[in-house]
Amino acid sequence: MNKQPNLDFIEILKEKKEHVEKNIGALKAELNALGNEDEIDDTIDMAELQIDNTVDQSILHQLEVEMGEINAALERIREGVYGICEKTGKPIPIERLKANPLARTLIDA
Question: How do residues 95-108 score in pLDDT, each as one tens digit?
Fold first, then answer.
């Protein structure tokens, strides 16, 4: 892959990383706020709080996984192997990378 597309993908990935970092920060703040609720005296409120906490924890986990994928893609760019299928060693089409900049493999690999 030539250098220009890599520069484009660096920007795309950095923007994506910034967005995910903001979402992680917001979720962690919400989880901290939920954990500090002192005035829960209703069983229904407690159940809703537990459901909210479970959902937020699940979303946070997904965001952290996505952050790992973004960092891995940026590392592949630094190593010069971004856009190369990890299974076949063949170039990943630019259209696939535009659709999914985190792609590690060809669709049919």
Answer: 999 999 999 999 98
